[in-house]
Amino acid sequence: ADICFTSSTVPKMIVDISTQSRVISYGGCLTQMSLFILFACMDNTLLTVMAYDRFVAICYPLHYAVIMSPCICVFLLLLSVFLGLLNSLVHYLTTLQVTCFKDVEIASFFCDPSQLLDRSCSDTLIKNIVPYVLGTLFGFFPMSGIIFSYYKIVSALLKIPSSGGRYKAFSTCGSHLSVVCLFYGTGLGTYLGSLASYSPRKGMVASLMYTVV
What we know:
Blueprint: H1 2-7, H2 10-19, H3 26-59, H4 64-67, H5 70-96, H6 113-118, H7 124-158, H8 163-171, H9 174-191, H10 200-211
Helix pairs in contact: 3-5, 3-7, 5-7, 7-8, 9-10
Protein name: Olfactory receptor family 7
Subcellular location: Cell membrane
Domain G-protein coupled receptors family 1 profile: 1-213
């Protein structure tokens, strides 16, 4: 998912740099946006699943093999793919409603869904409500699941008497937690930054962090 997520934007960016061209076709833009959303949502869901996995491993270690059985893991994987496809399809169909989409310039190195909707001339209600609804469903709820999982993990770790035991248990979460902070931190900085302090340059740097780095 990470490789595909990065590959949805980086190859086109490299071609643009080498050819000094900043143009993308309408069809290419829709394709890039759809793939970007698909794998971004999969990343989102998989990070939540991984947080749940750590929660079960630390809080219910004796039941881990039963709760996280191979069947459950396959189900969670398929669920993340389905949610990614659903999110991508809704964005795709919404963007198709935009009829005056010609010679549009966006301050990003890829077809950012939020910027595309911002520059549309369609119904204001659609372009305002759709990002918030999808952001809540596919962004807020997964992030809430991660926060809740780590809240329970920290609560369980505080009950371990030895500091060595706490460190050993929490060290298994280190890499996941760092990715979560980088992914959500830069993502939230991009999409939830106040309009007063937002600048295109800062937005592109933040986008580069969570899409590539």
